[in-house]
Amino acid sequence: MDIKRVKDYIYWLYFQYLLITCSYVLEPWEQSMFHTITVTVFAMVVYTAYVFVPIHVRLAFEFFSQMFGGQPDSAV
Amino acid sequence: QKNGVSNGSLYKKTFIEHFEQAPMYVAVLTFLGFGVGTIFGYLRDFMRAWGLEKRNIATEREQQKDFVPLYQDFENFYTRNLYMRIRDNWNRPICSVPGPQFDLMERVTDDYNWTFRFTGRIIKNVINMGSYNYLGFAETDINALKTVTIELQKYGTGVCSTRQEMGTLDKHIELEKLVAKFLGVEDAMVFGMGFATNSMNIPALVGKGCLILSDELNHTSLVLGARLSGATIRIFKHNNMQSLEKLLRDAIIYGQPRSRRAWRKIIILVEGIYSMEGSIVRLPEIVSLKKKYKAYLYLDEAHSIGAVGATGRGVVEYFGMSPDDVDVLMGTFTKSFGAAGGYIAGKKDLVDFLRTHSHSAVYATSMCPPVAEQIIRAMKCLMGLDGTTQGLQRVRQLGKNTRYFRRRLHEMGFIIYGNDDSPVVPLLLYMPGKIGAFARRMLEKNIGVVVVGFPATPITESRARFCVSAAHTREMLDTVLNALDELGDFLHLKYSRYSKSSHPELYEETRFELED
C-alpha cells in the first residue's frame, strides 16, 4: 500500500510540473524535447552548485572573518 | 477583499462581492506557461514555414506570396499554436435538450485536434453546468409545452417578414403587453435575436454628438452597438462609481472635444449581471449619479432577468428600486426563459420611436410564433398567472442553489469571483495547462463545464464558469461539488487564502468545548 501511495504522490508531482510549465498541452515529441532541455539545465545547475558553491562560501567566510577579527590571530 | 456598503442609505441589503487576488507565484507561473507555449509555437511555425511539417490552416496561395502577409498577427498565432492544442473542449455537439442533464456526442481526434471524427457513441446524462438555463425552462415535458404545440400547429414556424411589413402577429402584441406588465413599465418591443437587439437598437438611440459611457467589461453586443452608432465612447472601470462620476463631471464641464459644446445626450451602458465575472451592477449608485448629472441609463439584463430578484424581475427588483428610474430596460429571452430573442422596454414614447427607427424592426425577421408562445408561458408561470406557484418556486430554488453552491465552493478554498447572489460562478484556473486538464477530467466524470481562456478574459485569469440552474437537484450539485473537491486537490486549484473550514457535515455535534 505504501509503495502505491508513494508512486501516486510522485505521479502527482510530475503532473503538477506538466501543468505549471504548460507542457501538458504539447505533443509527445515536443514533450520529450522539453523534458530533455529542462533536465539538462537542471543537471547543469545542480553540478555548478555542487562544484562551486562550497568553495565560494569558504572564501567569503575567510574574507569576512579576516576583516573583522584578523589582527589578534596574527599577533601570535 | 470584500466590498462592504459604501453609501449606507442606498443599499437595502448588504452587497458583498469577491475579487480575490491569487498569490504572486501563480501569476509568475502563468506567464511561464504561456512563455513555453509561445516558444513551442514559434518552433512549430518555423517548421511549417520551412516545409518540415504540413500546414493545416492559414496558408496563403502561391499568388499571394508577395503581398502583405495575412496570418502573422498575434491573434492568428495564438489560434494556431495555443488554442488548437486544447480545442476539443469547445464546440462540443450535444444531442438533447440542454436541461440539467444532457447527452453529448463523443468525438475523438487522431491528429491533435486539427480534425475530429464522431465515434457514433453518445455519452448520456452529463450534468450540465454550462447552459444559461437559470430557471429550468429548457424542458421537453409534454404538459408544459402544450400551448407551444398548439401554436406551432396554428402558425407554423416561419414568419417570413419583418416587423414593419407583414411580420407583426397578434402573438407579438400579446407578448409585448405581457413583458410590459411583467417589468412594470409602459410598453415593450420584442426582437428575434438577443445580440441584434443591442447592436441594432443602440445606433437608433444615439448618434454623432452623443456620449456613451460604457463599463469596461460590457458584452460584445453592447460594444458593437456603441461603435456602430458613431457616438463618442468612454470607458469607466468595472463597477467603479468614482471612475464613472469623474467621467460624467469631465463630460459636463468640458463638453465635446473640439467645439466645447454640450453633449447632445449622455448615456450610461451597464449590464445587470456580468457573465464573465458574476458581479452585479451597483444600480442604486448609478441611478443617483444619473439623476444628479442628467444622463440616461441603458440596462442590459440579459443574465439577470428571471435570475435575481425576489420574484425574478431582475436587478431593478433586487435592489428594491422602481423601473421608472431606468430609461431603457433591455433583456434577452435566451437565458432564463428557454427561448430566443430580446426585448427593449421603457416609456411608451421610447418604444414607439424604436418601432419606427430601429434597424431590427425594419430589416430583421420578427420572432417566430412558437418561440413567442414559449416565452408567454414561461412568463405567465413566473408571474403566477397560470394558477400555480411553480414560477416562484423556481426562483426560490435558484436562489437556494446559488447560495449553497457558492458557500460550498468558498469553504473548499477555491477562488470564486462575483456577488454572492449571482447564479454565474466563475472559478479561477489561472494557468493555461490547467484549462485543458480541468475540462477533460470533468467530462470523464460526466460533468460538462465551460472553460474560458485568453481573448475572452485577461491573460492571467482564465476560468471555468458554472451556471447554476433551478432545475439542478441537491444531489446533482453535491456530485459536482465532490468532483470539484477531488479535482481541486489533484490539479492544485485551491488558491484561496481565506476560510477553509473542514467539511461541516463531519463536525460532531456532541463535542461541547469551551473556546477562548
Automatic annotation (TrEMBL), chain A:
<keyword id="KW-1133">Transmembrane helix</keyword>
<keyword id="KW-0746">Sphingolipid metabolism</keyword>
<keyword id="KW-0808">Transferase</keyword>
<dbReference type="GO" id="GO:0007029">
    <property type="term" value="P:endoplasmic reticulum organization"/>
</dbReference>
<keyword id="KW-0443">Lipid metabolism</keyword>
<dbReference type="GO" id="GO:0017059">
    <property type="term" value="C:serine palmitoyltransferase complex"/>
</dbReference>
<comment type="similarity">
    <text>Belongs to the SPTSS family. SPTSSB subfamily.</text>
</comment>
<keyword id="KW-0472">Membrane</keyword>
<keyword id="KW-0256">Endoplasmic reticulum</keyword>
<dbReference type="GO" id="GO:0005789">
    <property type="term" value="C:endoplasmic reticulum membrane"/>
</dbReference>
<comment type="pathway">
    <text>Sphingolipid metabolism.</text>
</comment>
<comment type="pathway">
    <text>Lipid metabolism; sphingolipid metabolism.</text>
</comment>
<protein>
    <recommendedName>
        <fullName>Serine palmitoyltransferase small subunit B</fullName>
    </recommendedName>
</protein>
<dbReference type="GO" id="GO:0046513">
    <property type="term" value="P:ceramide biosynthetic process"/>
</dbReference>
<comment type="subunit">
    <text>Component of the serine palmitoyltransferase (SPT) complex, which is composed of SPTLC1, SPTLC2 or SPTLC3 and SPTSSA or SPTSSB. The heterodimer consisting of SPTLC1 and SPTLC2/SPTLC3 forms the catalytic core of the enzyme, while SPTSSA or SPTSSB subunits determine substrate specificity. SPT also interacts with ORMDL proteins, especially ORMDL3, which negatively regulate SPT activity in the presence of ceramides.</text>
</comment>
<dbReference type="Pfam" id="PF11779">
    <property type="entry name" value="SPT_ssu-like"/>
</dbReference>
<dbReference type="InterPro" id="IPR024512">
    <property type="entry name" value="Ser_palmitoyltrfase_ssu-like"/>
</dbReference>
<feature type="transmembrane region" description="Helical">
    <location>
        <begin position="9"/>
        <end position="26"/>
    </location>
</feature>
<dbReference type="GO" id="GO:0004758">
    <property type="term" value="F:serine C-palmitoyltransferase activity"/>
</dbReference>
<feature type="transmembrane region" description="Helical">
    <location>
        <begin position="32"/>
        <end position="53"/>
    </location>
</feature>
<keyword id="KW-0812">Transmembrane</keyword>
<comment type="function">
    <text>Component of the serine palmitoyltransferase multisubunit enzyme (SPT) that catalyzes the initial and rate-limiting step in sphingolipid biosynthesis by condensing L-serine and activated acyl-CoA (most commonly palmitoyl-CoA) to form long-chain bases. The SPT complex is composed of SPTLC1, SPTLC2 or SPTLC3 and SPTSSA or SPTSSB. Within this complex, the heterodimer consisting of SPTLC1 and SPTLC2/SPTLC3 forms the catalytic core. Within the SPT complex, SPTSSB stimulates the catalytic activity and plays a role in substrate specificity.</text>
</comment>
From TrEMBL, chain B:
<dbReference type="InterPro" id="IPR015421">
    <property type="entry name" value="PyrdxlP-dep_Trfase_major"/>
</dbReference>
<dbReference type="GO" id="GO:0005789">
    <property type="term" value="C:endoplasmic reticulum membrane"/>
</dbReference>
<keyword id="KW-0812">Transmembrane</keyword>
<comment type="pathway">
    <text>Lipid metabolism; sphingolipid metabolism.</text>
</comment>
<keyword id="KW-0443">Lipid metabolism</keyword>
<dbReference type="GO" id="GO:0017059">
    <property type="term" value="C:serine palmitoyltransferase complex"/>
</dbReference>
<dbReference type="InterPro" id="IPR001917">
    <property type="entry name" value="Aminotrans_II_pyridoxalP_BS"/>
</dbReference>
<feature type="domain" description="Aminotransferase class I/classII large">
    <location>
        <begin position="124"/>
        <end position="484"/>
    </location>
</feature>
<dbReference type="InterPro" id="IPR015424">
    <property type="entry name" value="PyrdxlP-dep_Trfase"/>
</dbReference>
<dbReference type="GO" id="GO:0030170">
    <property type="term" value="F:pyridoxal phosphate binding"/>
</dbReference>
<dbReference type="InterPro" id="IPR050087">
    <property type="entry name" value="AON_synthase_class-II"/>
</dbReference>
<keyword id="KW-1133">Transmembrane helix</keyword>
<dbReference type="GO" id="GO:0046512">
    <property type="term" value="P:sphingosine biosynthetic process"/>
</dbReference>
<comment type="pathway">
    <text>Sphingolipid metabolism.</text>
</comment>
<keyword id="KW-0663">Pyridoxal phosphate</keyword>
<keyword id="KW-0472">Membrane</keyword>
<dbReference type="GO" id="GO:0046513">
    <property type="term" value="P:ceramide biosynthetic process"/>
</dbReference>
<dbReference type="InterPro" id="IPR004839">
    <property type="entry name" value="Aminotransferase_I/II_large"/>
</dbReference>
<protein>
    <recommendedName>
        <fullName>serine C-palmitoyltransferase</fullName>
        <ecNumber>2.3.1.50</ecNumber>
    </recommendedName>
</protein>
<keyword id="KW-0012">Acyltransferase</keyword>
<dbReference type="GO" id="GO:0004758">
    <property type="term" value="F:serine C-palmitoyltransferase activity"/>
</dbReference>
<dbReference type="Pfam" id="PF00155">
    <property type="entry name" value="Aminotran_1_2"/>
</dbReference>
